[in-house]
Amino acid sequence: MPVKCSICHEKNAFLKRPKTGNAVCKECFYWAFELEIHHTITKGKLFKRGEKVAIGASGGKDSTVLAYVLKLLNDRYDYGLELVLLSIDEGITGYRDDSLETVKRNQQQYDLPLLILSYEDLYGWSMDSIVKQIGRKNNCTFCGVFRRQALDRGAMLQKVDKIATGHNADDVAETIIMNILRGDVARLQRCTAIITGDDPSGIPRVKPFKYTYEKEIVAYAYYKKLDYFSTECIYSPNAYRGHARTYLKDLEAIRPSVIIDIIHSGEMMSVKQGVKMPVQSNCTRCGYISSNDICKACVLLEGLNKGKPKLGIGKTSKVKQHFQPTSEKKPTTNNFCKAGGCSSTDSGNTNSCCGANNTTDIEKEQSEDVNEADCSSSVCACNKSTFVRKEIDITTLTI
């Protein structure tokens, strides 16, 4: 015997909601899905009338459903928002180029302005070229850091008031688990916030899908026949987040409410008084928010441009040593004679060598530095700036 919808009690149930376990018909599922997002928006006070909101659009299920639902709710409940799409091209051949075609179709379907910025435009590097340098083990570190800043730069070009991202409940729960495993107390406090407003651009980010299950987003996109791109990034299978996702899915199979339970637990966590927390300041190079003198993006770019791609990976001691002023570095003599006139290799006896071609570490560094003022080569590494040097003409990027 067919099961009746638990909401309208008239039509036959079409699916069982992963979030609540209730059997519902298709129309009631749409209504409940949209209403819950509306309640999240209104209860969290995510938007104000008259604001211009950029929707982070990747072409995937989350951003596609977010663009569709925000436009729908904006018209239905008269939010009074001006919506635009913002996409970042990481430069991943066979993945991002295809997904951006989906974004362009969404732009036409939803009639929303679209701006596309690329890593190549902003940093002088694409993810394909970065992976050739770093390999596939730590590439997600580069992409995550660069993408966050790229979204902010794009939002500033579009002059928006807020950025709406498609982070869903599964994403938030995974992030909580990752920060617990890392012992990252500072990020653990921030990752559950539905509005994050600590960006240097002054553009807060909002998460309308914070309490929305990924499975329900997929079901909504599928049954609504929305146009979205479903292929996984070719560089992500080895990402640390993947292990947290697998763990979370195993827990969800046993207890479906575990996703919301983890989010609520994360919201309730507080740091004991007296615990030293990182102090947020601004990067001395690009002005971006950072807990260090030089932000992560500038460190990663410095490593790429100097031929040291792993500079920003792992311990911070090597980063501090790299950026330490030359005058403060302790010279160490290389006593391996290169002239061939003697055979001294005793690092403690500098007088035993003939002295030919012996250089200090600092002298080597100085000889390797590029004088940007004297360099005019179009392919020189000094043209790969630490951050955006050239002005970007938004009219050439907007669709």
Shape: globular
Rg from C-alpha positions? 26 Å
CATH homologous superfamily heading of the domain at 45-268: HUPs
The quaternary structure here is single chain
Share of helical residues: 40-55%
Helix and strand composition category: alpha/beta
Order of strands in the sheet with most strands:
5-4-3-6-8-7
Q: In what range is the share of β-strand residues?
A: 5-15%
Total beta strands:
10
CATH class bucket of the domain at 45-268: Alpha Beta
Distance between the termini: 52 Å
Order of helical and strand elements: EEHEHEHEHHHEHHEEHHHEEHHH
**Overall mean pLDDT score?**
82
Question: Are there runs of 5+ residues with pLDDT below 50, and where?
Answer: 332-341, 343-352, 355-390
Number of helices: 14
Describe the main β-sheet briefly: 6 strands, mixed
Can you name the CATH architecture of the domain at 45-268? 3-Layer(aba) Sandwich
> The CATH topology of the domain at 45-268, please?
Rossmann fold
Keywords:
Rossmann fold; 10 strands; 6-stranded mixed sheet; CTU1_C; EC 2.7.7.-; RNA-binding; alpha/beta; TilS/TtcA_N; transferase; 399 residues
Structure description:
- Helices cover 41% and strands 8% of the residues.
- The protein is of the alpha/beta class.
- Strands 5-4-3-6-8-7 form a six-stranded mixed β-sheet, with helices on both faces. Strands 1-2 form a two-stranded antiparallel ribbon. It has a two-stranded antiparallel ribbon with strand order 9-10.
- Strand 3, helix 2 and strand 4 form a beta-alpha-beta unit.
- Helix 7 (169-182) crosses helix 10 (240-254) and helix 7 (169-182) crosses helix 11.
- The longest helix is centred in the middle third of the chain and has 20 residues, at 139-158.
- The protein starts with 14 loop residues before the first strand and ends in a 31-residue tail after the last helix.
- Mean pLDDT is 82; it is low at 332-341, 343-352 and 355-390.
- It comes from Phallusia mammillata.
- Keywords: Cytoplasm, RNA-binding, Transferase, tRNA processing, tRNA-binding.
- Residues 282-311 form the Cytoplasmic tRNA 2-thiolation protein 1 C-terminal domain.
- One of its GO terms (molecular function) is nucleotidyltransferase activity.
